[in-house]
Amino acid sequence: DKAGHKHFMAKEIAEQPSVIGAALSHYLSADGRNIVLPDTMPDFATISRLTMVACGTAYYACLTAKYWFERLAGLPVEVDIASEFRYREPPITPGTLALFVSQSGETADTLAALRYCTDRVDTILSVVNVAESSIARESDLALPILAGAEIGVASTKAFTCQLTVLLLLALRAAHARGQIDDDRLADILSSLRALPSTLNTAMERNTQIRIVARQLSTSENALFLGRGLMYPLALEGALKLKEISYIHAEAYASGELKHGPIALIDDTMPVIVMAPCDALFDKTVSNMQEVMARGGRILLISDARGIATAGDGVWQTVSMPDIDPILSPILYALPAQLLAYHTAVAKGTDVDQPRNLAKSVTVE
Ligand code: F6R
Fold this sequence. Notes:
- It is found in: Cytoplasm.
- The chain is an alpha/beta fold.
- 46% of the residues lie in helices and 15% in strands.
- The strands form 2 sheets. It has a 5-stranded parallel beta sheet, with helices on both faces.
- α3 packs parallel to α7 and α7 (157-176) packs antiparallel against α13 (328-347).
- The longest helix is centred in the middle third of the chain and has 22 residues, at 182-203.
- The radius of gyration is 20 Å and the shape is globular.
- The structure holds fructose -6-phosphate (F6R).
- Fructose -6-phosphate binds at residues 55-58, 102-104, 107, 110, 154-155, 239, 243, 360-361.
- The site of fructose -6-phosphate (F6R) has 15 residues, from α3 and α10.
């Protein structure tokens, strides 16, 4: 049931404010001030390293979470693609917590990576959508993301629910390790509680993004740039676009532009820059100037201050509501998804069942 939407993907994008709200009510106390996790949750104060393993979009959720765990909790983090991890057979040092992220809970490589860790770590933790899945069953503790069934092959609401649960874990870790003061924690939790309504405001950009997407749909290539927390999201934005619109899209950390991809820039290359006006914004402005000087067309997704700072010369802008920068990947996922969706619709591709792809990759 598409609930009045043309595609499951559109329905699942639109559902994000409510499913994130459901995940938050599950993991927050009634007054919203405390993070509630099962008693069997390992103690983040006693671990020395976190290893996260996943595939595809779930891998990008892990890459985002690395920034959170490092910045908020001072915890060393490794993130790996499951198919690399399982065959590299990396050494696991004592005190490592292994965390697997999977929407379906059936991804063959992620499951194999989990099994590799079973006798090598004290606790196997997973963040899954399908609670009765193999990955959930074989974990010591499986935390549900509560996104509800995801039918569209391109993952959308599972991604933002994964991010929400991972951010709560990073906050728990920060608290357990004495790395965050009570005021900062209260601030972030209050922004999280407001997130469903912030996402609803961002949904109002839908029509504008559809118009931009119509223009993007005539391109053969696209480049996504992001820094810091926006870098993994740039990767996810490029993956969404290529999966469903078949436009060749690549993502780079903005600082890498000069180290190669700038050679691609000409007036046929749209460059999607996702950058709230945070501490790193000035550096992103210089990157945009480098692109514009070579005729590249910039689509800037930012907040009002960022758009004002970027000045003239930007091809298109999409203005996002203000948000605590630590939460920006969850909010900015929405325009990235909508951009891919509307581009695919404009191209007339099969949005919910893109060619060559399966929802659950149970063979390697
Ligand atoms: C992208 C997408 C895939 C999955 C990947 C992992 O839109 O859906 O990249 O994220 O196949 O799947 P799960 O999360 O089920 O392990």
